């Protein structure tokens, strides 16, 4: 949430509607979805269009969480390349995962086009920038695997990446033209709008505090004293997961992703930085990612402190990264600073759980939530409508809390500090 020193660049229009649609107390629907981000709203939209009655309950306002606070990079694929997926999941499930991973960005951009969503976007690709020979070899391996499957990708030489990014310090990289950038808050709000227009009831400021199953129906109780009954419940809270379902919060490590936005760049300066409008993520252990906005600002993000920020100094590492990449921006003002959460799992894959019949949970956006959760929500809706697990790209798995989870945050913070120091030596 915004603080006096944390103000996001993405702003909700003053004319944006509040969502206060709640089915009558004690009434029954087919599905209650807890969480109104990409995952929850995509599931709700597609479930409603498959004929299900849906209620979305969000603890805050739509777009207030990570879905409205991220960098807006729409990147296809998973953290793993096709050959790894085939090896670890077998030919049938592995191929299904490869096909799913290839489709995630299409899900977002097709929806924007087909539904005529009021979402600013550019689809000129995403660059994975390599700053070491090891990273360049990994990019070549990834390029070979995806090109063999017909993807619109290619390797970039040192001179090409310099021209396309205008940044210093890269040896080369990899361009995936399936990707692009959006205004993530606008996309979240538009998802909510078309979901509501499709018959979904959406209620903001309805924190769910209790779930119980009685006679085959789930009774979903909120902090406000309201109750909705449903045949199925989907927990789509991701990095904001709490103790509602015992053990679920302990399956993920929520990280803070901090971001800064410059003042609008002059036309001359803007012409030298990402002139074709791609998004970029680099290959450092603690990576930074960046893009330009429609009004000519440069937005750059990366991992921040594990606890809540206390001052503008908590974004100083991003300002240093900005100047390292673009020395000409040393005197450009930073006008916006903000942060959101990212849910990471130990195996860097999303997890789908169904600990009881009709109780489903999804956790682990892995920093690619825009496309990944939009596409996964559509598949989840298919599962809710049919009960056929073939609809799900990832297998259902039991809830396995991370051992010594309370100490994991401390370990991650120490690892981030160590990796940041190693990255500094690789300048």
Automatic annotation (TrEMBL):
The keyword Oxidoreductase applies. GO terms for molecular function: oxidoreductase activity. Residues 30-381 form the FAD dependent oxidoreductase domain. Keywords: Oxidoreductase. InterPro entries: FAD-dep_OxRdtase, FAD/NAD-bd_sf. Gene3D superfamilies: D-Amino Acid Oxidase, subunit A, domain 2, FAD/NAD(P)-binding domain. GO terms for cellular component: cytoplasm. The keyword Oxidoreductase applies. It comes from the Bacteria. This is FAD-binding oxidoreductase.
């Amino acid at each position: 949430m915004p603080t006096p020193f944390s103000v996001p660049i993405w702003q909700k229009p003053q004319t944006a509607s509040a969502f206060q649609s709640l089915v009558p107390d004690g009434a029954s629907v087919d599905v209650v979805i807890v969480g109104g981000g990409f995952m929850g709203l995509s599931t709700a939209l597609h479930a409603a269009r498959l004929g299900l009655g849906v209620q979305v309950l969000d603890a805050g306002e739509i777009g207030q969480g990570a879905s409205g606070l991220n960098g807006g990079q729409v990147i296809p694929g998973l953290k793993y390349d096709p050959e790894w997926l085939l090896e670890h999941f077998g030919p049938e499930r592995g191929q299904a995962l490869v096909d799913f991973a290839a489709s995630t960005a299409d899900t977002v951009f097709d929806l924007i086009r087909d539904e005529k969503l009021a979402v600013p976007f550019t689809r000129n690709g995403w660059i994975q920038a390599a700053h070491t020979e090891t990273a360049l070899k990994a990019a070549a391996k990834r390029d070979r695997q995806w090109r063999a499957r017909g993807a619109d990708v290619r390797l970039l030489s040192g001179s090409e990446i310099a021209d396309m990014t205008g940044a210093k310090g890269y040896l080369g990289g990899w361009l995936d033209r399936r990707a692009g950038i959006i205004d993530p808050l606008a996309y979240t709000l538009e998802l909510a709008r078309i979901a509501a227009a499709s018959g979904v009831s959406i209620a903001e400021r309805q924190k769910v505090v209790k779930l119980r199953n009685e006679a085959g129906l789930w009774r979903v109780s909120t902090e406000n004293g309201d109750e909705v009954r449903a045949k199925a419940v989907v927990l789509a809270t991701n990095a904001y997961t709490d103790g509602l379902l015992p053990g679920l919060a302990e399956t993920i490590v929520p990280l803070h992703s901090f971001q800064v936005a410059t003042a609008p760049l002059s036309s001359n300066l803007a012409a030298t930085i990402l002139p074709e409008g791609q998004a970029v993520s680099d290959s450092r252990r603690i990576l930074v990612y960046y893009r330009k906005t429609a009004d000519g600002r440069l937005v750059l993000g990366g991992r921040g402190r594990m606890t809540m920020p206390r001052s503008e100094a908590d974004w100083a590492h991003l300002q240093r990264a900005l100047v390292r990449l673009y020395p000409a921006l040393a005197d450009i003002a930073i006008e916006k600073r903000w942060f959101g959460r990212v849910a990471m799992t130990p195996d860097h894959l999303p997890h789908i759980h169904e600990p009881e019949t009709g109780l489903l949970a999804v956790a682990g956006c892995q920093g690619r939530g825009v496309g990944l959760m939009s596409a996964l929500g559509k598949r989840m809706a298919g599962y809710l409508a049919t009960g056929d697990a073939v609809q799900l790209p990832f297998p259902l798995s039991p809830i396995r809390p991370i051992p010594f989870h309370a100490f994991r945050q401390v370990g991650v913070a120490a690892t981030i500090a160590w990796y940041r120091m190693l990255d500094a030596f690789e300048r």
